[in-house]
Structures are given as structure tokens and as C-alpha cells.
Amino acid sequence: MKPEALVRTVEDFLVSASDAVVMEEGVVAFDLANAKYSVSGEHNKCLLHLWSAERNVVRRVLDVEIKNDVLRLAVQRLGQARPTKLEIRRQRDRRTPTAKRAARLAYQRVLQRVLERHFPSCKIAELRTSVDLERSFGPTYARGLLCRGQSSFAVLGVNAEETQVSIDAALTFGILWLDFCRQSQAGKTVVEGLKLFLPAERSSLTRERMARLHRHAAKWQLYELDEREDCMKEIDVSDHGNVSTRLVQCPDESAARARFAEAIAVVRRLMPEAESAVISPAEIAFRCHGLEFARARVVAHQPASFRSTTEIVFGLGAAERVLSERNFAEFAQLVRSIGEVRHPQGPRDHFLWRMHPERWLESLVVNQLGRLDETLDTSCVYSQVPAFSASDRAMIDVLTLTREGRLAVVELKADEDIHLPVQGLDYWSRVAWHHERGEFQRFGYFPPRELAPEPPLLFLVAPALHVHPATDTLLHYFSPEINWILLGIDERWRETIRVVFRKRPNRAANFARDA
């Protein structure tokens, strides 16, 4: 295969694999969610450059093969003659279907033994991992019922070989399993609550979310299970005063835009409608309807000089190349291609039109905030607010205020997503924690407004026909302290934001259902 064809094949695969992992010698070398790459075909060679905060490598690509969502590369290290193998996998879970089934069956037996040992007076209804698509249950989680007399607990567990994403998602399916057990066991037994089993040392995010559930709607019990030792320990979820999160200082936007005025002018000459978002005092991003295609950033001081310089890098997803005179035409072509496609009337089958729909929706919401709710203050809005924890780098979609100064968290989904409520709960919890400590104003947000002392509002926004059927069930189990509003918007949201329905909690109905 010629170098030009190799470059095109690698680029086409990577542009739609932003969360892929790069495997070398059987181990993960790079996670493209946190790494960058560039592909070049200079000097009649296809070179793949990968770098992150920990590593920096260059490989010459000799041959490629795509099979089962895996890009297999024959590569040559610089200075070595013998080719080696490198794989780029779209799926983070690298196990075969057979290995997954074996691990899940083994875990099911471990969970059975642990339940029998620690709850000897209870009867364990058959644990299962069968697929029930109607109720959104898959094979990832073992689920069952722990009965004692006329009372019982729903049980759901996940093994340590599953991805952290699956482990963090267990609470969503645990709540749905609890609700299903209550319906199916009505008149037979009282299902008091949920016993959720997660792998050891991997439950912190779930603990924080569980602390914000309705304590009178169910008894919420969280356990960490060590599969090797066949032992478990209960995790306290009653205290939500210690949330693992930190807020990032709000950058001075006017100073940052002045610093990057020249870079902004370069991009605006090619795309006058380009959005510019200040990431930090030293970095600014350029987007078209939420699709990021370039960044300007401050680079390290040059040798023998105390002056810093700026550079523009461009590319889609994890791709990144430094803009120079030599590749300016390529940059201009990329910008023109995006502008021609990424607009409401653009070709819907084009990958540039389909990429990052939630970012597109977010860019519209930021500019049309008043269309969501007339109480929101359109002059005070932040997007992609970093609120990091020890286990993830969370970005709150939109953070704003009501006209009375009450904080409002806006969580967005452009497509059907069963996890919308619980992810919104997570961000609400972080915002509430920082608000209670007065950190938003201390970190430079919402000057010079005085924030109201009430807890934040939570707006959950999705196209009306793409609100997952389980959303109402999940919201029913939220703590009464969380004032949520579910907004269904018109499916033609790319043209304009228009709310077609809105739901709020019916506290009286909730308490009646739980009685």
C-alpha cells in the first residue's frame, strides 16, 4: 500500500475513534481520550506520532488492516529494522465475548457465595445475567433478590474486569432493577431497597451519587466486593458532605482574547462565524457549532529569551498538527470543509455533520438559553466547566443562574441516553458541594453577582423523541432536595431551540407511590 493510502486509512479510522486505545506489545500505550496524534506522509513515508503527558513516540507505518473495529498496524520504530505490531481499538474492553461470559459467570458464583455467607438467614432468588432488552438489562450485571420472610432487597453486582464506565453505570441499572422487583413482587414481598456490589476501591463516584437518592423511597446499601478473597465491606452512603471534587479557576476571558488576538484573526479570516472558547489563560479553542478544529496556545519560552510565543494547532478529535506556512493550505481546506457541511441544512450523512452532536446542542443552548426557561439569566452562562474528582475529569455542560441568582446546572443529551438523570445528579452534587463552600465566587465565576443560598436547579435537556423511557423511573428515586426540570426539545433543534414539553417532580405522587 502506498504511503498516501496508508495515511488516508489511518486518519479515516482515527477521526471516528476519539475514545480508542492504542496497544503495543499487549499493553495500553495511549488512551486517545487523553492523548494526541498526528499522521503525515512526508518523504514518501507514513509516520504516526503519538504523545501524552507520559509518553511520546513516532512509528513508521508499513501496512494496515481493519478487522472487528480494530486497526492493526505493522510499524517500524525509528532506528530499528524489524517491524513490530501496533493495534488501535475502538472498544476499551479488549476481551473476547467468550472471555466476558466466563468472567461474568465466575463473578455470579462468587456473589452467590458471598451473599450466602454474609446473609445466612436470607434466601437468594436465582442470580441472573440474562438479557432483557425491554427493560434495558444486559449481561454485564448480575442481578437477583435477597428474601427474608415478607421483606427483600434487590441485588445487583458487577465484576472487576468490566470497564470503569460500566462500574459507574451500575447505579442506573440498580435503580431500574429495584423498581422492576417492586413491580414483579407486588403482593408477595416488600422490596425494601437495593444492595449494590462494586469492585474494591472503585466505588467512590457511585457513593457520591447514592448519597443524593431519596432516603424514604428505598434503603440504599453499597458494598465493595473483593473477588479474590471472597469478602465484602459495606460503604457508608449516608454522608454527602465529603465529595471528591475540585473546581478550576475561571480564566479572565478578556485578557485571554487579547493575548490570542492574532490567532483569532487568522481563524476568523477563514471562518467568520467560528466560535472561540477560552480554555485557560494559556489556551483558546476554535469551534464550528461545537466541533473543535483548532486551538491557539502559549508555548514554552524560547532558549535565551524570556518571551513566550503562541502557536495554532489544528485537527479533529485527538489529531493535532502545528500550523505552519507549509501546511496552511491544508488547514484552510479543513476549515472550509467544516463550514460547508456543519450547518442545519448540511448533508446529514457526512461525518462532519454527525460528529459531536451534544457539543452542537450545547453551543446553541449557550446562545439561546432563554428559550429553555425564561427564568434563566442569559448574561451569566459558562459551558464545559471543569469539576474534577480523583476518578474522572468531569465537564459540566452548562452552568448558569436564574434571574434571582440561583445556580442552575444544565445537562444535555442529543441522543437517547439512559444515564442522563444519574449523570445530571452527579454534576448537580458537585455544584451543590462547591456552592455550599462559596467556591464559585472565590474562583472567579459570576462576578459581581451575589449567589442565592438555595441549592442549584437541575435542568435535563434532550430531544423529545430521544428521552429514554427509563428517565421517569430514575428521577422518581432522586432526593426531594433536588429540584429538577426535564425539558424535551423539538427534534429540529439544530435550526432553533424550542421546548415541546417540560416535567417537574410531583412530590405528592412520589410519596404516595413509596407508601
Task: Describe this entry's structure for a reader.
There is one protein chain. This protein is α+β, with helices and mostly antiparallel strands and 515 residues long. The protein folds into four domains: 3-89, Protein Yojf, Chain: A (Distorted Sandwich), CATH 2.70.180; 97-235, Trna Endonuclease, Chain: A, domain 1 (3-Layer(aba) Sandwich); 253-354, no CATH class; 357-514, Trna Endonuclease, Chain: A, domain 1, CATH 3.40.1350. The chain contains 15 helices and 25 strands. Strands 2-1-7-6-5-4-3 form a seven-stranded antiparallel beta sheet, covered by helices on one side. The longest helix has 22 residues, at 97-118. It is globular.
Key structural traits:
15 helices; 29% helix; globular; Trna Endonuclease, Chain: A, domain 1; seven-stranded antiparallel beta sheet; single chain; 515 residues; disordered C terminus; 4 domains; alpha+beta; Protein Yojf, Chain: A
